[in-house]
Amino acid sequence: MEGLEVLHGGTFTTIQDLGRKGYQQFGMPTAGAMDITSFRLANRLVENDDGQACLEITYIGLRLATIRNLTIAVTGGDLMPTVNGSPLPMWQTVYIPKDSEIAFTGVRNGIRSYLAVAGGIQVPEIMESKSTYIRGGIGGLEGRPLKKGDRIHIGPQRPGVPLRRVKENLIPRYGEKWKARVVMGPQDDCFTKRGIETFLSSEYTVTPQSDRMGYRLQGPVIQHRTKGADIISDATCLGSVQVPGHGLPILLLADRQTTGGYPKIATAISVDVYDLGQAKPGDKIQFSPVTVVEAHEIREEHKRRMKGIIEPLP
Amino acid sequence: MYRRTRYLPAGDEGLVIEFGNEIHRAVHHRVYAMARAVEEAVIEGIVEIIPSYRSILITYDPSMVSFQRLKDEMTRIAENPSHTEIPEHRRVEIPTCYGGEYGPDLDFVANHHGLSPEEVIRIHASQEYLVYMLGFTPGFPYLGGNLEKIAIPRLKTPKVRVPAGSVGIAGNQTGIYPIESPGGWRIIGRTPLALFDPLRPPYFLLAAGDLVRFVPIEKERYMDLLSHGRS
């Protein structure tokens, strides 16, 4: 049933879920939410199953009208959401009466908000996913960003979704400096010792030429070994840090091409890649190396933290 | 081909199995055979198996399988001699209308080599190509064959819009554009077949390891096949 009408699409709003898995071998990018951590929390706050489609709202301007009473949660970057002009509390379940207006009015921190609606956003699944893949023009609403006049369908809502919130002290804080832990390789042997030192000791700035495909970074040039700037194309990963001939790194993200011909000096670990979904142009990233075993410990620790992160609203 | 297969971590969810550092059929046969063997082994925790020219990326869920266990399992499979045999290849014919509006660069390629357009078509359509991998856009096949006689540098400035189905040459490679996209390859023909159809499983016409042959067709046949869609 219809639940939301788009009054203004905003800068860039798409429907995303956990992505399209299983088709990378055919060259199909996964797409999916950039900040999976916030995405998952939004769904949990409205008691949706893991991976129900949400709105991924980038930057400002989205305005929505509620066509019926809805239970929602907004997580991720603080894009100063309002309901009927009053601040809309984030990181908690909120009941919104029908004929209300939800708006995203500015950027306090981060750059992407996730709006989950109890019952989940309903669009046809394309290749088993609702995620919008813009370059391929598939998924979400007709494979494109939302625009004025779109009407968004919502699945049946479970009765009596309780009001809950993310514990105050566990709400992610997004600043302008980011730490990205990386496992070195798979092609770190294409770089000189000095190149690797440069990569690990410098700050890199997110440039405006950054999108869901990847972040182009600006900073000290990373030195390749002779003939190191091109490799035989192979598969890319979420979080791959590839370094083309110009020596500036590109962090590959949700909409990345599945294969690439530039050497990958390192691969950022998934929980940090999710957080980096909130990095915006001008922000600085510092890379630091971890082993695979350490990366898996970090991952387990993150999972433990997520388990007890939600509490009833007092 | 490496004497020792390399196992490289790719972050906390990826393992790269690298067999060599060249574009060569022998290397790809190892990739292809291994990808098949891993698929058949059905190992818990593996999410995707992504073969490319000389390596395979395995993505996995570390809460289900550790890196070390996955690496051990992969080593066991890689060292099993029955998994180094070349599996059967699927053969796929790609009807292609060469030249004219569908292959605007055919004459350029011919002139570049002092050949007639017909000779270029004959060379392009007289061999079997191996699908080394798919990438760039959904369903785009990187095809390996012997194209020295008609090899051509890619465009310095890529075209903004290359229509779906376009068959192109770049350097010694040939490929097919599954969806309309920008592209820097010289376009010599077009196929009416859909290489990618997101609404109809199995969604993709080709897979890595397939053997592909281009079959020249006339415009009439092109229109006919186009209107019937993918069979």
List the keywords.
heterodimer, A: 314 residues, alpha+beta, Jelly Rolls, Cyclophilin, 2 domains, 7-stranded antiparallel β-sheet, 7-stranded mixed barrel, 23 strands, B: alpha+beta, Gyrase A, domain 2, 5 helices, 13 strands, 29% strand, elongated
Question: Secondary structure elements and their pairing?
Answer:
The complex is a heterodimer of chains A (314) and B (231).
Chain A: E1 2-9, E2 12-16, H1 36-45, E3 54-58, E4 62-66, E5 70-78, E6 81-83, E7 86-87, E8 93-96, E9 101-104, E10 109-117, E11 121-122, E12 151-154, E13 164-166, E14 177-184, H2 193-201, E15 203-206, E16 214-218, E17 234-235, E18 240-242, E19 250-252, E20 259-260, E21 264-268, H3 270-276, E22 284-289, H4 292-307, E23 310-312
Parallel strand pairs in A: 14-22
Antiparallel strand pairs in A: 1-4, 1-12, 2-3, 3-10, 4-9, 5-8, 5-10, 6-7, 6-9, 11-12, 13-23, 14-21, 15-16, 15-22, 16-19, 17-20, 18-19, 18-21
Chain B: E1 6-10, E2 14-18, H1 25-41, E3 46-51, E4 55-60, H2 67-79, E5 91-98, H3 106-113, H4 117-125, E6 129-134, E7 141-144, E8 159-162, E9 166-170, E10 173-176, E11 181-183, E12 186-190, E13 211-216, H5 219-228
Parallel strand pairs in B: 5-13
Antiparallel strand pairs in B: 1-2, 2-4, 3-4, 5-12, 6-7, 6-13, 7-10, 8-11, 9-10, 9-12
What does this structure look like?
The complex is a heterodimer of chains A (314) and B (231). Helix content of chain A is 13%, strand content 33%. Chain A has 314 residues and is an alpha+beta fold. In chain A, strand 15 and strand 16 form a beta hairpin. The radius of gyration of chain A is 20 Å and the shape is globular. The two termini of chain A are 32 Å apart. The model of chain A has no long low-confidence stretch (mean pLDDT 96). Classes of the chains: A alpha+beta (314), B alpha+beta (231). The interface between A and B is large, with 44 and 47 residues.
